[in-house]
């Protein structure tokens, strides 16, 4: 079991092991968050009248990576988000104990949470970490 740090956007489904799926940045998610629209065919499942050629595509949807995209330290999380635009005051950082199940689209760990240690809003997290 390891400790992970995740920024949980305010518009994501509630933080839980069941909702622990990662998608590439900015993609459109299915209702349960476990799949995203295929980028090859824009979610239509077809390309030029043929079935979509993306091997991960199932009728326009591709499976997400299991586990929440997260970082192994507070510094890494701040650096990871640094180039992406600052999170808002409603976005929370979740510090949790969990196990890494995979690697995300940016090479970051993806983990399924087992126990939440604390949650705090982004500005407080940054203030405490700096
Ligand atoms: Zn497709």
List keywords for this structure.
four-stranded antiparallel sheet; 130 residues; mainly beta
Strand content: 35-45%
The total count of helices amounts to 2
The largest sheet, given as strand count, sense and whether it forms a barrel, is: 4 strands, antiparallel
Broad structural category: mainly beta
Q: Assign an overall shape.
A: elongated
Bound molecules: zinc ion
Number of strands: 10
**Uncertain spans:** none
Question: How would you describe this protein?
Answer:
By secondary structure, the protein is mainly β. It has helices spanning 74-82, 122-129, and strands at residues 2-8, 21-22, 35-37, 46-47, 50-51, 61-63, 65-66, 68-69, 92-103, 109-121. The protein folds into two domains: 1-21 and 66-130, no CATH class; 24-63, no CATH class. It is built from two helices and ten strands; from the N terminus they run E-E-E-E-E-E-E-E-H-E-E-H. The chain has a four-stranded antiparallel beta sheet. A two-stranded antiparallel sheet has the order 2-7. Strands 3-6 form a two-stranded antiparallel sheet. Bound molecules: zinc ion.
How does the SSE layout of this entry go?
Layout: E1 2-8, E2 21-22, E3 35-37, E4 46-47, E5 50-51, E6 61-63, E7 65-66, E8 68-69, H1 74-82, E9 92-103, E10 109-121, H2 122-129
Antiparallel strand pairs: 1-9, 2-7, 3-6, 4-5, 8-10, 9-10
The protein binds zinc ion (ZN).
Residues 38, 40-41, 45, 52, 54, 57, 60 line the site of zinc ion (ZN).
């Amino acid at each position: 079991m390891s400790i992970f740090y995740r920024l949980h956007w305010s518009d994501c489904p509630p933080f839980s092991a069941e909702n622990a799926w990662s998608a590439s940045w900015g993609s459109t998610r299915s209702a349960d968050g476990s799949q995203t629209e295929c980028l090859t065919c824009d979610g239509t499942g077809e390309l030029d009248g043929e079935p979509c050629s993306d091997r991960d595509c199932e009728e326009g949807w591709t499976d997400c990576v299991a586990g929440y995209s997260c970082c192994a330290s507070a510094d890494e999380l701040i650096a990871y988000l640094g180039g992406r635009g600052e999170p808002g005051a409603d976005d929370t950082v979740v510090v949790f104990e969990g196990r890494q199940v995979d690697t995300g689209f940016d090479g970051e760990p993806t983990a399924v949470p087992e126990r939440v240690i604390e949650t705090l809003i982004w500005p407080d997290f940054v203030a405490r970490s700096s």
